[in-house]
Design brief:
The complex is a heterodimer of chains A (698) and B (165).
Chain A (H helix, E strand, L loop, with lengths): L1 H16 L7 E4 L11 E7 L2 E4 L4 E5 L8 H13 L6 E5 L17 H28 L7 E3 L2 E3 L5 E3 H8 L28 H5 L15 E6 L6 E6 L1 H4 L4 E7 L2 E6 L2 H9 L2 E5 L6 H13 L4 E6 L2 H6 L3 E9 L11 E6 L5 E5 L4 H12 L6 E5 L13 H13 L3 E4 L2 H6 L7 E9 L5 E11 L17 E9 L13 H19 L3 H14 L9 H14 L9 E9 L2 E12 L2 E12 L6 H20 L4 E3 L2 E3 L16 E6 L15 H15 L11
Chain B lengths: L2 E5 L2 E5 L7 H8 L18 E4 L2 E4 L12 E3 L11 H8 L9 H14 L5 H8 L9 H28 L1
Parallel strand pairs in B: 1-5
Antiparallel strand pairs in B: 1-2, 3-4, 3-5
Helix pairs in contact in B: 2-5, 3-5, 4-5
The chains are: A alpha+beta (698), B alpha+beta (165).
Protein name (chain B): (2Fe-2S)-binding protein
Organism (chain B): Sandaracinomonas limnophila
InterPro entries (chain B): 2Fe-2S-bd (IPR002888), 2Fe-2S-bd_dom_sf (IPR036884), 2Fe-2S_ferredoxin-like_sf (IPR036010), 2Fe-2S_ferredoxin-type (IPR001041), 2Fe2S_fd_BS (IPR006058), Beta-grasp_dom_sf (IPR012675), Diverse_Oxidoreductases (IPR051452)
Chain lengths: 698, 165
């Protein structure tokens, strides 16, 4: 199995380096992992598509697969417009190829939004070229021909397979304005397509970064300093005497232990002692102080100002105020950070492993080592999750720097403790909300200040209900911390969504309004007479809200308390209703109804996975996760005390999708932000207890 | 001193530190990468293998403790990847990132050996020792149910065949 993986990578490398854009023909080896490689002629019709004269359809998926299902979804779109049967398609992961692809990254739930037109065009242009080739052969009008399941069918019933037409089709001009399918004729898009890697996953094939093995490769683990500290000295005398240990080297305040095998490196690592220098290292009390200061400073950044908040709140009949807070949390993907690097004396570099941003890795390593970008090859492995963690290539740079120091191919592997204690975290944030209601209970003033620790702008100032409220002031304060932070699935909104939606529930209660009707009234206002700039589409909001109310039997379930939330992020809309009941005096979430508008659903199976997964992720982190800092050191450090949600702690979930045929938008993240809100509001409805902090105290 | 054991029906002899956890012996010394490292402290279940038929966390199990034992990993669960649990996992499209699934599958297959017709509650309890960070839990639970049905059908048809014979 090790060998088949290696030969697959070699084949892919061969395939991607052998020729440039256009219609080059080349010899390539057959299906990855085949015992005897069959040699077939193949034509690359475009970046995504290769069809051999034997009829084999290969679709390349360029974006890194992290569990979001993009390796399946992209080829589905190409195959649909090409009009071939899914069973006849072979999907291959493309390595980093900046000549052929742009935005070859995973982040921001943006892949389908960005590539939808490109993918459709890739399939539709090729389909048209096959029609053209058949029409020329048969001497008939192309418009009299149609396609089905990889065949062109002529007016007199002639039939030719794409494979038989491939060599002629590849010589024809590429149509600039191809004809696209009508969505009512879709055979694959919108249906359930199983993950293309399922067979590899269920049989344990070595497809992940941590599984990478290369000739001459050594293993390394790295001891990193507490946040804010510098390495003063280290003693590796004993470690260097231990079996299998090759070297112990230091760079950038880190100490790397290099050896033959993982266990030997782990043992030796425990024998290395490090001394650090550091003043004013951060603790939980430091962070509390920074939150407190940030809440009162006059120097906040103003992110949005509609009307005059101060004047409006002064004359409000009722004021609602609340403060919400979330801690730093770890991404904790099941596969800890790791990366392979081989920095060679000839100037070339091979990087391989799990990264959401391979091109950034290439550029950063080129800068770090002063090498030519073009000589840095990046192989993409499947990622064992990431949730934003692998947007930061710190671990890939570690591997490259270490390889250049020890002059060996090396795989750097983080332990779970390294992963949980070494950053890069979801920033800790505190929010303060204030709402002013008039005598009729209408919100006339809305205020939000976010104070984040390394969070940048911790608000999203154009979020609904902004646009419906006359007087709005939204500000943020960023406190600089030595704790490293970065995007965590649905950056900022993963907690802001909860805080906002929980606060609006308080507003509805104070106003004596139904939380759903209150939002629908606001959206009616936005439609007729919006306040300031709006970035969302009110009708799409209204649709998910109405469907969620209907499908959840809103407030019509006897004995069940319900909480509502709705959120717009990554260009998609998600409304949720959570059901809660009291069990032994404690609230329990039993069910969640989610209605999502992400435009066209490309793969229903994958879409359900993303929505349910994001909701479970949202519940788990709202309920359990928290990191604390003491003198720059994070705790806890592993899953025994950093609790992740388990299979006996989940509610049932119904995932519905709005069928509107709009071009697809994000789905990896959007179902997460509303989750904390629907859950907190249902818990309040059941127990009359408001939850202002993550992790929830229930 | 080398340690002998059987892995996926093959006799293996390993001449490495006997304290090496079985997980790293499999991954680093036998190139069986299907068994995953997740936490190293037996909390997440990604490293689950069978030792003498029992689902076991290999990350905390020293090699010395499995001398002469019979170990099955995900690579050895079935010859063609068609164990009922593997079939069910594919049919219901369980994996998202897929990293934890080898451990989930080894846990599920062991659970079903002991309890071939589990109730939903038994499935939930039986599988809750394994963490899935992507949150594929609903499909994991549905797939265990489906696997039990596939296995039952297989059994019936093979009984019929042998009855005919």
């Amino acid at each position: 199995m090790k060998n088949s993986r290696r030969s697959f990578l070699q084949q892919t490398a061969l395939a991607t380096s052998a020729f440039c854009l256009g219609f080059d023909w080349f010899k390539a080896e057959g299906k990855a992992g085949a015992m005897v490689a069959s040699t077939v002629e193949a034509g690359r019709f475009n970046a995504y598509l290769e069809i051999s004269s034997l009829g084999k359809v290969i679709i390349y998926s360029p974006n890194p697969e992290i569990g979001q299902g993009i390796k399946t979804a992209f080829p589905v779109v190409v195959a649909e417009e090409l009009d071939v049967d899914w069973k006849d398609v072979e999907v291959r992961q493309s390595n980093l190829d900046t000549q052929r692809f742009d935005r070859q990254l995973t982040g921001g739930s943006g892949a389908l939004k960005h590539s939808w037109d490109r993918l459709r065009k890739a399939g539709a242009t090729a389909r048209q070229m096959f029609i053209q080739a058949a029409a020329q052969t048969w001497k008939v009008d192309p418009s009299a021909c149609k396609t089905a399941s990889g065949f062109v069918i002529g007016p007199a019933g002639q039939k030719a397979s794409y494979g038989s037409l491939a060599s002629l089709a590849a010589t024809l001009p590429v149509p600039t304005e191809p004809t696209y399918k009508n969505r009512k004729d879709y055979k694959i898009i919108g249906k359930r397509t199983k993950g293309v890697d399922n067979a590899n996953v269920v049989t344990g094939k070595p497809v992940f970064g941590l599984d990478i093995e290369k000739p001459g490769m050594v293993i390394a683990q790295i001891i990193r300093p507490p946040f804010g500290a510098t390495l003063k000295s280290f003693d590796a005398t004993d470690a260097l005497k231990m079996p299998g240990i090759i070297d112990v080297v230091s760079f950038k305040n880190k100490v790397a232990i290099v050896g033959q095998s993982t266990w030997q490196v782990m043992q030796a690592r425990a024998a290395v002692s490090c001394k650090y220098d550091g003043q004013n290292l951060e603790s939980e009390s430091t962070h509390k102080k920074w939150f407190d200061e940030g809440m009162v400073t006059e120097n906040a950044q103003v992110n949005r100002k509609d009307g005059d908040f101060k004047a409006a709140i002064a004359k409000a009949a009722k004021v609602v105020e609340a403060t919400y807070e979330c801690p730093f949390i770890s991404h904790s993907p099941m596969e800890p950070m790791n990366f392979f690097a081989d920095v060679r004396s000839d100037g070339s570099v091979l990087l391989a492993g799990p990264t959401q941003v391979p091109q950034s890795a290439q550029k950063a390593v080129a800068t770090l080592l002063n090498r030519d970008e073009k000589k840095i090859e990046v192989e993409l492995s499947k990622m064992g999750g990431g949730f934003g963690r692998r947007l930061n290539n710190d671990y890939a740079l570690e591997a490259a720097e270490l390889s250049s120091l020890i002059k060996k191919p090396v795989k750097v592997m983080w332990t779970r403790e390294d992963d949980m204690m070494g950053g890069i975290y979801r920033p800790a944030v505190r929010y303060h909300f204030k709402a002013g209601l008039d005598a009729a209970g209408n919100m006339i003033a809305f205020y939000l200040r976010g104070v984040g620790l390394n969070a940048g702008n911790s608000t999203r100032q154009d979020n609904f209900p902004v646009g419906a409220i006359e007087n709005v002031l939204i500000e943020s304060v960023n406190q600089v911390s030595s704790v490293t932070t970065g995007p965590w699935r649905a950056p900022i909104t993963n907690f802001l969504g909860y805080a906002e939606q929980a606060f609006l529930d308080e507003v509805a209660e104070a106003a004596g309004k139904d939380p759903i009707q209150m939002r629908l009234d606001w959206l009616a206002r936005v439609k007729s007479n919006p306040v300031g700039k709006i970035t969302y589409e009110p009708d799409r909001f209204i649709e998910v809200i109405k469907q969620a109310a209907e499908k959840s039997n809103w407030k019509k379930k006897p004995g069940v308390s319900q909480g509502f939330s709705v959120y717009y992020s990554h260009l998609s809309y998600v409304a949720q209703v959570a059901d809660a009941v009291m069990v032994n005096g404690k609230p329990k979430i039993t069910h969640i109804t989610a209605v999502t508008d992400c435009g066209e659903v490309v793969n229903l199976s994958g879409a359900e996975n993303q929505v349910k997964g994001a909701i479970i992720d949202g519940i788990g982190h709202a309920m359990f996760a928290k990191l604390r800092f003491n003198e720059g050191v994070a705790s806890p450090s592993n899953f025994n005390s950093y609790r992740l949600i388990r299979g006996n702690e989940i509610p049932t979930i119904d995932a519905h999708f709005v069928d509107n045929g709009i071009a697809p938008t994000g789905l990896g993240e959007p179902a997460l932000p509303p989750t904390g809100g629907s859950v907190a509001n249902a818990i309040y409805a059941a127990s009359k207890k408001r939850l202002y902090r993550q992790p929830f105290d229930i | 001193m080398s340690i002998q054991l059987t892995i996926n029906k093959k006799k293996v002899s390993l001449d490495i530190d006997p304290n090496t956890p079985l997980l790293w012996a499999l991954r680093d010394h036998l190139s069986l990468k299907g068994t995953k490292y997740g936490c190293g402290i037996a909390q997440c279940g990604a490293c689950t293998v069978w030792v003498n038929g029992e689902a076991t966390r290999s990350c905390v199990l020293p090699l010395s403790a499995v001398a002469n034992a019979d170990v099955t990993t995900i690579e050895g669960l079935s010859e063609k990847g068609d164990h009922p649990v593997q079939v069910a996992w594919d049919q219901l499209d369980v994996p998202q990132c897929g990293y934890c699934q080898a451990g989930q599958i080894m846990t599920a297959a062991s659970f079903l050996k002991k309890n071939p017709k589990p109730s939903t509650t038994e499935i939930i309890d039986g599988m809750s020792g394994n963490i899935c960070r992507c949150g594929t839990y609903h499909r994991i639970q549905e797939a265990v149910k489906l696997a039990s049905e596939i296995a039952a059908k297989k059994k019936t048809s093979s009984t019929k065949k042998s009855a005919k014979a």
